[in-house]
Amino acid sequence: MPLALNKEELMTYLSEVFPQVADDFALDALSEDCLTMRLLVADRHLRPGGTVSGPSMFALADCATYAMVLARVGRQALAVTTGCSMDFMRKPDGSVDMIAEIRLLKLGRSLAVGDILLFSEGSDKPVARATMTYSIPPQGSAAAVAG
Amino acid sequence: MPLALNKEELMTYLSEVFPQVADDFALDALSEDCLTMRLLVADRHLRPGGTVSGPSMFALADCATYAMVLARVGRQALAVTTGCSMDFMRKPDGSVDMIAEIRLLKLGRSLAVGDILLFSEGSDKPVARATMTYSIPPQGSAAAVAG
Amino acid sequence: MPLALNKEELMTYLSEVFPQVADDFALDALSEDCLTMRLLVADRHLRPGGTVSGPSMFALADCATYAMVLARVGRQALAVTTGCSMDFMRKPDGSVDMIAEIRLLKLGRSLAVGDILLFSEGSDKPVARATMTYSIPPQGSAAAVAG
Amino acid sequence: MPLALNKEELMTYLSEVFPQVADDFALDALSEDCLTMRLLVADRHLRPGGTVSGPSMFALADCATYAMVLARVGRQALAVTTGCSMDFMRKPDGSVDMIAEIRLLKLGRSLAVGDILLFSEGSDKPVARATMTYSIPPQGSAAAVAG
Fold it and tell me: Which residue of B19, B115, B119, D39 has the smallest Cβ count within 10 Å?
């Protein structure tokens, strides 16, 4: 199934509907089922001890899923997160960027599921994993639960 | 089982080890198994459309769990989040504070589990639920996975 | 919001659409937002060591949610589980029944979320917690994802 | 890191400590970080409509994780499930076996995390995904939470 938005179109659209994205995130790669997003780690993402905060990791996983879904369904800003599960497995390195690799497991008419691994750049051992589920509103509706 | 820290001791300790807490969170109530924490909703917690962002809800659930665990085990800053699951069920109201009510389901020697409901102040319908699991390092160790 | 089925109607319907229920489960209590279901623990539910197996606990939490949803929406056998999270916190006692208490957190047009605590009968410390999400097909459709 | 048990040693040990395994499951493949397990689908695993039941899918994901952990840590029957999350994404085909592919994301001294995809044999679209966390008791201890 083809992409509805290419990499440049996707970043432009994300910056419009979700302006804080441009400060925090960069899009490294995009294919039909996978996307790689980078958290540009800065002081505001850190916890004492020099690790990346949990909320920052959640934000990265969530944003990567949102971007992956939009890349496939097009400009539907109202897609909303309905669920997540995360496991935090290793201490992140706060001195480098954090990389999220998402694989889209399902894209149905109303529900999408993505699996995400988070890495500190330069390491191949995941610091965390996440699953995010998104609700996609029917065309023309004014949806939204949370996110 | 008694509390190791009372409400005032807990907030003082949280402010020391986790300074951003004081800006974002307030502790409304504390008992042996339950704690109520408030997110002081400000512009930086909002998404377009006037809802509270997912990362802000994650941060509130996480901070409430951390505080509940410390209230019971005492000053052990190194307790770390190892897992979470969340369901986002209703659109939060960005014009009021968000309230987290946590119930501690288990406090073992090395693992704690808390169930959290999140409400927009003034509503009795939860906007989200969360479960957070925490790893508690053995006394004297230098632990830490993530957070 | 009133119940669509009372306790007797619910058990009769469950036995029709899901015959194995009658052998394994009993319905102890039902109100608008809460339901108590019992696993009639038998040898086939046990693991070596005399504990109740994980799949049996999953089945109990899942069946309690299915029953709670049907009690509210009526005879819609095609409601399907779309997600679950569970935490196993204490060793269950295989010599007594297991009790599930479910609280319905959300019942939307297409999605339901229930929180479940599982207890070995006679103990007030939960052996496990679960969250189950259900997809409810639109009236008249032939739905189904899994279950 | 090498395997503590090869494929034959693992199946022999599983059959000793967990006798029902031999009836329900077969081990298709094993490497250092991945394992493929098969549910030998029979009538007792089915739901009305010819789909594989949720508890059977849970059992497959759980057993695959248990086997993967034992393959690495050796004969430690007391490893126990402490948490799981699952998403059910497509309707399973009850007329063929179900295949679980597990990837071990973390194996620490006391905690293991595995990500599992479940497929109906012959399809490359996952019917479900799961994450299982296991607690590994210290050598010589008599552990156990649940499972």
Answer: B19
- The CATH number of residue A110's host domain is 3.10.129.10
Question: Quick one: tokens of B47?
Answer: 């998404």
pLDDT bin (cut points 50, 70, 90) of residue D49 is confident
Question: Locate tokens 């089945």: which residue?
Answer: C59
- Reported as a single tens digit per residue, the pLDDT across B51-110 is 999 999 999 999 999 999 999 999 987 889 999 999 999 999 999 999 999 999 999 988
pLDDT digits (tens, 9 = 90+) for C83-105: 999 999 999 999 999 999 999 99
Asked, for residue C1, whether it belongs to a domain, the answer is no
Chain D contact present for C50, CB below 8 A = no
Provide the domain count of chain C: 1
pLDDT > 90 fraction of chain B, expressed in percent and rounded: 78
Residue B104: how many other CB atoms lie within 10 Å = 20
The interface predicted TM-score of the complex, written ipTM, equals 0.91
| Segment (H or E) for C88 | strand C80-88
3-state SS of chain D? CCCCCCHHHHHHHHHHHCCCHHHHEEEEEECCCEEEEEECCCHHHEECCCEECHHHHHHHHHHHHHHHHHHHHCCCCCCEEEEEEEEECCCCCCCCCEEEEEEEEEECCCEEEEEEEEEECCCCCCCEEEEEEEECCCCCCCCCCCC
The answer to whether C100 and C126 have CB atoms below 8 angstroms apart is: no
The two structure tokens encoding residue A13: 């659209």
Q: Is B53 on the interface with A (CB under 8 A)?
A: yes
In a domain, A2, yes or no: no
CA distance D8 to D41: 22
**Shortest CB distance from D91 goes to which of C55, C90, C146?**
C146
- The verdict on a CB contact (< 8 Å) between B90 and C105 is no
Asked whether residue C65 is domain-assigned, the answer is yes
Contact list, B51 vs chain A (CB under 8 Å): 144, 146-147
Do the Cβ atoms of C50 and D23 come closer than 8 Å? no
Mean pLDDT of A131-143: 75
Query: D-chain residues within 8 Å CB-CB of A113?
Result: 87, 89, 129
Judge whether A87 is closer than 8 Å to chain B, CB to CB.
Answer: yes
Tell me how many residue pairs between chain B and chain C have CB atoms under 8 A apart. 39
Per CB-CB distance under 8 Å, the chain B contacts of D83 are: 83, 133
- Structure confidence at residue D125 as a pLDDT band (50, 70, 90): very high
| pLDDT tens sequence across C32-48 | 999 999 999 999 999 87
Model confidence at A49, in pLDDT bands (50, 70, 90)?
confident
Domain carrying residue C12: 7-145
| pLDDT at position A85 over 80 | yes
Distance, in Å, from the CA atom of B5 to the CA atom of B19, rounded to the nearest integer, reads 18
Cβ of A106 within 8 Å of Cβ of D85? The answer is no
CA distance C102 to chain B (A): 14
